[in-house]
Amino acid sequence: MSEPKSPTPTPAGDTYKGWVFKWTNYIKGYQRRWFVLSNGLLSYYRTQAEMGHTCRGTINLATAVISVDDACNFVISNGGAQTYHLKASSEVERQRWITALELAKAKAARMQAESDDSGDDFPPSSLPGGGGQGGGSQNSEVQSTLRTLGSKVEDLSTCNDLISKHGSALQRSLSELDSLRLTGEAGDKIRQVTERATLFRITSNAMINACRDFLALAQSHSKRWQKALQAEREQRVRLEEALEQLAKQHNHLERAFRGAAQAHAIVDNKGGAGPGKGEASDEDDENEFFDAMEDAPEFITVPADPQFHKRSSSNASGLNTDLCADDQSLNEEPLAMNQESPSQELVPLKKRRARIPDKPNYSLNLWSIMKNCIGKDLSKIPMPVNFNEPISMLQRLSEDLEYHELLDKAAKCHSSLEQMCYVAAFCVSAYSTTVYRTGKPFNPLLGETYELDRRRESGYRSLCEQVSHHPPAAAHHAISDRGWTLRQEITVASKFRGKYLSIMPLGTIHAIFEKSNNHYTWKKVTTTVHNIIVGKLWIDQSGEIDIVNHTTGDRCHLKFAPYSYFSRDVARKVTGVVMDKDGKAHYVLSGTWDEKMEFSRVMQSSRGGENGTEGKQKTVYQTLKARELWKRNPLPDGAESMYYFTALALTLNEPEDGVAPTDSRRRPDQRLMEDGRWDEANGEKQRLEEKQRSARREREREAASQRASSQSEEGAPHDSYKALWFESCEDQFTGEQVHIYKGGYWETKELGNWEGCPDIF
């Protein structure tokens, strides 16, 4: 695939960033990298998403040499230790970078000269990950503080001279008055004023002397502090270099251990090479190190020969092979679908909003709150709205329908195996909205509901209800006019581990298709929020999902690879295999949960020997060319200031007429937070939670009185709450006790009669 055209680099204050091609080695040549120029440092990353956690290299421009090779090429070197051979997409773009680099170099050199003049002999260290940038900014901050202190003391000295001058004049005037030999009360007052003026002058001089001593002491100790800081930086560099060497040695040992087995698996398949990993490697092998515990792939895919069915059935390698006999043609067609179209074009009832108020910049000491929460269930900890995003968990659950069109396409599929591909893509797409969403949704109140009626726009409508508070559980039911139903009951368990937060969704998701009567079930993977205390928050999804078609026995196994700094695989990778009830593979799925998913039709599967780690067998799949199954929609303009909401998320909390009084749109603390009134939202949140606790105590008292009055009901529950729109029953497919939609909500909405709804707000 060809690389998209590099966008023009854009300055942002003192920062300049953009795509530039960087020379890696003679095998891969120039590779496209994201470069960021800031504070005299030029850093680069594989992708823009890596800026939050993984810097691939940094060079200090203060001592660097910038040279131009030809119309598009230029070189940056700091004397031999680091040299970047770069190539811009055009001469104009190269000139923009050269201009920005020269200006940044001049500024960095000027800042270093100023530091040298004031006694700082320590240039900022060019540490990976931005360590040098932090050191340089700290040195300049110290010098700026000292200069400010010096100017303030000079101001105080000037004030001292003025005070001394005017104080002396005042004393002379008072002495002259005293010489008039005034008697009585007037003379006592003059002597009292004279004494106070003398004390004031002495105190002023003492204050000036103390400030001057402080400045001298700060200046004498500043060099000692900076030397100690520089020693710590150098020790950190040595430790990082030692760790890198150990990781390289460990990687070479592991590769030597399993290299022969991997080579054997690839050589046995003469049809082609192993799967491409995209832009997985940055430099040559000597400049890389990988996680030694990285899991080996469970299978290998190689390109299939389009004329494979015409060959002899004999196999030179002697491996047992299975040909997909149910595939009538081997051409690279998209999944077969009915070409039915709606009888009329659906039009929206109203124009949905595309913006919400920008997120305020309120600071909060996270550690002061979280240090007492380690090891506890996060749902039982009162949290301020500063950690939230202005939607509830019910709305977040409804956001799974962001890519409902995948289920629309699945409902039109002729084959259950093809349908499984779209169901798997829908399963993965639900996580694409989480990549930048580090805010916590509001915990719904017991009895809170949320409706999402998109019947006119998209053919579906959905209803969520909070059916339990401890443990928190939400039931969800969505039905579409295009032939599918989605239902789920999700209980979220979360644990704070000090450095990260683990969120484990418990419950099963069901997708039922009316035309084929196919019934699919699957569960969600674990979500991890990293850098809770220190650093920039980022989210990862990891685990495995088994999607089962209970009607036909088809299965799809999806694997979400956890992020690893040392892995050569693309970040947020997802792989999967679609198999029939006999275990025969028909499709291979691959992609990332934050960008896109692709599918490839399997033409032949071969079972090899014990080539994997721990003696596991690997399967080699020969597939047709991969085709796109799903791709993430771009975020709206300005999403970074609107909690990184998608186009659908921006409309979830939009006020609507006719919704139930328990609807999340009517929740006051959530509405106040969306409007930017966070202090009021925190107060309202505490009021609602106390109201919920009072209602629960009242239910428990009623249940206790019922048990006391009836001897036959000793086993009555302590809390007699029952959901309004969902009823509890045993799921016939999973055996779990779940809540199923019992109907009546949409009919009640048409009548406008909400008398049965509880007062929770």
UniProtKB/TrEMBL annotation:
Alphabetical GO biological process terms: lipid transport
Top-rank taxon, per record: Eukaryota
Bilayer topology term: Peripheral membrane protein
Entry similarity comment: Belongs to the OSBP family.
Matches recorded under Gene3D superfamilies: 2.40.160.120, Pleckstrin-homology domain (PH domain)/Phosphotyrosine-binding domain (PTB)
Primary localisation category: membrane
PROSITE patterns associated with the record: OSBP (PS01013), PH_DOMAIN (PS50003)
Coiled-coil spans in chain: 222-256
Xref: InterPro entries: OSBP_sf, Oxysterol-bd, Oxysterol-bd_CS, PH-like_dom_sf, PH_domain
Extent of Gly residues compositional bias: 128-137
Low complexity composition-biased segments: 705-714
Organism of provenance: Poecilia reticulata (Guppy)
Cellular localisation: Membrane
Record keywords: Coiled coil, Lipid transport, Lipid-binding, Membrane, Phosphoprotein, Transport
Span list, region Disordered: 109-144, 655-718
Full protein name: Oxysterol-binding protein
One GO CC term on file: plasma membrane
UniProt-listed Pfam families: Oxysterol_BP, PH
PANTHER family in the record: OXYSTEROL-BINDING PROTEIN 1, OXYSTEROL-BINDING PROTEIN-RELATED
Biased composition (Basic and acidic residues): 663-704
Molecular function terms, GO-annotated: sterol binding
PH domain mapped to chain residues: 13-106
